[in-house]
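Loading example: each entry is read as two labelled lines plus one structure line.
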Amino acid sequence: MSEYYYTSSHECFVLEGNQATVSITPYAVDQLGEITFVQLPDVGRELSKGESFGEIESVKTVSELYAPLSGKVLAINVDLDAQPEKVNEDPQLLGWMLKLELSKPEEVAQCMDAAGYQGYLEGLA
Amino acid sequence: MTELPGLKKTALHAAHVALGARMVDFGGWDMPVQYSAITDEHQAVRQAVGLFDVSHMGTFAVSGPESLDWLESMVPNRVSGLKLKQALYTQILNQAGGTLDDLLIYRLAESEFQIVVNASNREKDWNWFLGHLPKDGVVLENRSAQSCILALQGPKAVSLLARLLPKAGLKELPTFYLTQTEELGYPLLLARTGYTGEDGFEIFVHPEQAPTLWNQLLSAGQGEGIRPCGLGARDTLRLESAMALYGHELDEQTSPLEAGLGWSVKLDKPQDFLGKAALQTQKDQGLSKKRLGFKLAGTRRAPRQGYTLWLGEQEVGVVTSGSLSPTLGVPIGLALVTPEAYAQAADLEMDLRGQRMSIEPSNLPFYRRSL
């Protein structure tokens, strides 16, 4: 299985060459509860690391989504428009959100690996 | 009453954790927000039966020869209209008519009452009642530590509870009445009240027996499809029924008249009560804000507390509560708006995080159970 990288705002991504597939973490999904709406950016948009790229709503709350890396949006998961619950069913595969073409690959090193993120979550508890 | 720092726990805390509940800080209490999924718990209450722990609410006892007159002076609803074993919804108000809390008063005997207040206001309310206590004739006791409250709600709630307590006459008990029984070997107070828009009971039990009763209800209700329900479903259920939630529809800057609770305010009762002059002025001069119910069309995005409402370029109100309605499948909201905006409600727009959306004014409640 490919290796995921994580942010402190609970986004995560997996790399294939210079492309990242971005989703939110199972922890984030558990915190949000049932997802009712996902707003994603237009394909082609240039995002900077940390910039809001969309919003996610659950029955309980609404949250911003933040770009874990800088890059251009190559694709978005259009299925989430009609079936936002896919994020609940399988946050990292069916519920993926963006494919980014990295403009600053060096930013990957600023993200946490699985063990680092696990430690971060334990610190939140 | 001073409460210790750190999150407080009800006597059912371990039961919630054992059921896998997700716990959140609610007004200083570590409470279950959901066990499975909010919409599943919501539907269980609408279609079958759900069980809630609401033991974080405060319970005060009032007794003594002057207790009726004193309560009458403290709240805008008519306490002397209460028959024995009947319950009443009312509020406590500041001098400006703003709402300190909303609460239920239960008349247990001629001069014996029980008051149930919101968890987040327990200490404030206790100090308020204590500060207005007459020199003699009224005894006020804080029974919160001796009271757990379980809410059993849904179309199958009454038959389930009547099966466990066949001698208590529960099916015949009218809405907003209570009864007491020791049929299970310990004292229970059962009130046919709730906060979901469904039939059911709120059950007062000593913390020592609360876990036993909780488990007994969950096992006995398996055939009915009972689910333990968290505060998430409690909120969507009460919102569909357009019941006020303190801190949302009601606060110290909002009177019960403004919040659409005029039915519970008796300005014509003979006794004076705290906040009466301010409410009378509001009624005579017209309200500066009114409660509006609305829906959104063509979106699954929900109104949220704090979103603003607009009439053209003029900000005319604010959303107090909102959610995607599990029963109706559309976003619903409650707002406080100016009277001018209320009169043109069909022309209002809501600012949803930078995007203007038309609203559709709605009759309230959004959901009413069929009898």
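Chain B touches chain A at residues 22, 33-34, 37-39, 232, 236, 299-302, 304, 323-324, 326, 353 (CB under 8 Å).
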